[in-house]
Amino acid sequence: MRRSLTLFYRTEYIRFEYVLVYSIIIKNTMLVKNITNIKYFTDQFEPIDKIFVYSVNYHPEAPQTKFETNPTFVASFDNCLVHSLPFLVTEDQHLITNHVWPLLDKVRNKPYKTHGLWKTWGKTVDIDLQPVSKSFTEEGVYVWLPIDEQSAENPWHIWIDVISKFRLLELSNEKLLSKYVFVLSNKSKYFDRVAKELFPQVKYYVMESNTVWRFKNLIVPSMSNHSDGVIVPTMADWIYRRFSKRIERPHRKILVSRDDAPARKISNAEEMFIALKGWESITLSAMTIQEQITAFAEASHVISPHGAGLLNTVFSQRGTRVIEIAQKELLSKKPYPILSFLRGHDHTFVLADTIPLGTKKPAGVKRLKDYNNYKIDISEIIKLL
User: Fold this and answer.
1) Domain range holding 127?
2) Residue 327 is part of a domain; what is its CATH number?
């Protein structure tokens, strides 16, 4: 473990350059083949993780309890283009999104509302691509870390879909992370915070919105997560080992507050807090990344409404008691029960009564069904403890 930590904290710098390329072409139209089958990747690149199958019975009414992961890989493409949307076009005009970063349904099927780069989505796609604005000529240096603008501030996506790709690089190549230059498709203030606190030596570029960059060679790790939460088991333990710390006797009992969020607050949280003697209420947005990691590493018990804050249970010790509060409409949201299962936590999914907040979805709320607050049966919670 001590050896692997040097990947983040050795100070070794490499020289890298980029060349600005100006073009008088307004748009470059190309017909590309849409790649959806993971076999396209595993036939060319050696798989790193095999397929895992596991069962997580997190609630009697859960619509699905058996899950299957995808194999993982690290691809490499020569003379390719990347767009900040994000997607990648290979030298032989293959369109890469699936298994690297899946585009949102509205991006694929409602381009006239979002980007205008194509008219129809299908097995082949006519793309009206902008001119290349930057070109990079080094080989074996640049690593593609795509994420869309809508997910860029979500801790779950940053840790599980972006930072987890460092693990695949380690397993495929013993090269220090400081030897790479990472390319983010969209700006993420949350990633900036994590990088500044936990791996300041790692270098990365951030693409400007609606731009195209060309790479002589680009390294492209796969996702270790698919179907919204079905993650590779060893990935969760890798994050814990790398960033958390072993606590001999976890002792903190944590109630995660969402008072700073637009929805999914516990309306009777104060009453519950009084009933839960010896507990502490924390607001994650008021804490540094390291403070969050420490709090969850030291926690023996965690209660939280459904939300990205539960990602932090990846830093908790095995056996941590986790109670997730949600509404019936979110029973299909399995990321945190799966994460707890893989980390060895005691996870209970508790359904709450909902208090509707309105009929118009505000900024920061993805789905109208999420636009509720919760009222819980405090006696039920106490019984579970």
Assistant:
1) 2-242
2) 3.40.50
